[in-house]
Amino acid sequence: QLCHPFDKERFVFPTRLQNEMPEAEWVKTDAVYFGCQIRCRDDIDTFSCDFFPRVQVLLLREHPRSLISRPSIWKNSIKCVDEYADALVQYTIDKREVNICVRSESRDRERCRPMMQRIKNIVYPTLLKTSPGTSTVEEALSAFALKNHLGYHTYTAEEIQRAANSIGIVYHKEVKTREHLKD
């Protein structure tokens, strides 16, 4: 699809969007970070080309109902802000992963959860509609890696369950750090 209607007068043209998000849009802060990655389960799968533009349009329509400002949008990213949290949703170039990062400057994780849930409530139905038959896996993003802008490093559900059954700490080999499950 060449364009996606945003409202009766405006449209999103994915090919006309700026490619990269400016670094100033998502700078390191002392906020509480958490997130998830939704990716294709199988190596041969990808999400459809119109999946992410549809997600972007649906998030744009959340303003002013639940977002305090109109989201900032780029070709593979969208940044949303409500009164308690900021969210950055990024789509990989290979069309196999969506990373959702939420942060709270007030350091209140519970106030971030509605933003995370709002985004997931848009992403999953859009995936079902645009990419039927593509099975997905959801993994937790490393809060340490998010906070320090080290990229998207994940923990599997099995790693989290093992930690929950023992001392409540997960270790990430790539980032070389231990994190409490509550983080």
Structure summary:
The chain is an alpha+beta fold and 183 residues long. It has helices at 51-60, 109-130, 143-147, 157-165; strands at 4-5, 11-12, 32-40, 72-74, 77-81, 86-91, 97-104, 136-141, 154-155, 169-172, 177-180. The strands form three sheets. It has a seven-stranded antiparallel beta sheet. Strands 1-2 form a two-stranded antiparallel ribbon.
What does this structure look like?
This protein has helices at 51-60, 109-130, 143-147, 157-165, and strands at 4-5, 11-12, 32-40, 72-74, 77-81, 86-91, 97-104, 136-141, 154-155, 169-172, 177-180. It has 183 residues and is of the alpha+beta class. The strands form 3 sheets. Strands 4-5-6-7-3-8-9 form a 7-stranded antiparallel sheet. Strands 1-2 form a two-stranded antiparallel sheet. Strands 10-11 form a two-stranded antiparallel ribbon. Strand 5 (77-81) and strand 6 form a beta hairpin. The mean pLDDT is 84.
Described by the principal axes of the CA atoms, the overall outline is globular
Instruction: Please summarize the sheet with the most strands.
Output: 7 strands, antiparallel
Strand coverage percent: 25-35%
Strand order of the largest sheet: 4-5-6-7-3-8-9
Helical proportion? 25-40%
Number of strands: 11
What structural class results from the helix and strand content?
A: alpha+beta
| Mean of residue pLDDT values | 84
How far do the termini sit from each other? 40 Å
Radius of gyration, Cα only, in angstroms? 17 Å
Q: What is the succession of H and E elements?
A: EEEHEEEEHEHEHEE
Number of helical stretches of at least 4 residues:
4
What ranges have pLDDT less than 50 throughout 5 or more consecutive residues?
none
